[in-house]
Amino acid sequence: MTDDAHSSSPTTSPAGLDPADTSGTADISDTAKVLAAVEAFVTGQELEWERGAREGEVVVTLPGEHKLKTVLSLLVRERGLSGSAFVIRNADEAHERFYRTLLRRHLRMAGVAYAIDASGDVYVTSHVPLAGVDEAYLDQLLGTVLEAADEPFDELLEIGFITSMRKEWAWRISRGESTRNLDAFRHILDTGPQGEAPGEGSVHEG
Question: How far from 117 is each of 58, 77, 84, 128, 144, CA to CA, in Å?
């Protein structure tokens, strides 16, 4: 699996589907074949995965560099394969800059898009017809989702959660607690306020 966002135009499908079929709806055997192909691919990549709570759902854990892990839900339905992965919760501050950063990244993303839910939490989403699912597409999808979720994670934390991060840093320092999970931000946190209690919720965990 690669992290590079690149486009592909699959012409064959290991799931046994005909890419020329433009009917828009697959039968039950097609969905079963695609589901089996997805499971075989993630198993072959030695990724952690499990069946999801919904029928036709595969939940894959992608290990990251900035974000501890990205959990991707792949849902096989008659009209296509959909993907959804949580990126980061709604920012506490600097919302305009936060969302501008995400939108700029859209310019170099292929096949996936950022979206927000009713709470403002950020996800990476995707959708492709079943006929477009093959190993090349799955490799591209997992790599692109990981890049979209993991690569900007530290920057988004700095933009949208800097106040609460400074409070947590100061609180840990004042009590002699470990700051290991915030060390990536030491260069901007050492000058923060001292002795304040950390804000509610964790913003630095993946």
Answer: 21, 21, 11, 21, 20
The values of phi and psi at residue 41, to 5°, are -65, -50
Is the domain spanning 28-158 CATH 3.30.1460.10? The answer is: yes
φ, ψ for residue 148, nearest 5 deg: -65, -30
Tokens 């433009």 belong to 22
Contacts with 50 (C-beta within 8 Å, 6 or more apart), sequence order: 58, 59
CB proximity list for 10: less than 8 A, separation 6 or greater: 19, 132, 133, 134, 136, 137
* Strand ranges, E, within the chain: 48-51, 57-63, 69-77, 80-88, 113-116, 122-128
Contacts of 14 (CB under 8 A, 6+ apart): 37, 40, 134, 135
Work out the angle at residue 11's Cα, subtended by the Cα atoms of residues 134 and 137, and round it to the nearest 5 degrees. Answer: 30
Digit-coded pLDDT (tens) for 50-81: 999 999 999 999 999 999 999 999 999 999 99
Please give the Cα distance from 41 to 47 (Å, whole number): 9
* Mean pLDDT, 10 residues at a time, the chain of 206 residues: 35 35 57 97 98 97 95 96 98 97 92 96 97 96 97 96 89 83 80 46 48
All CATH 3.30.1460.10 domain ranges of the chain, comma separated, are: 28-158
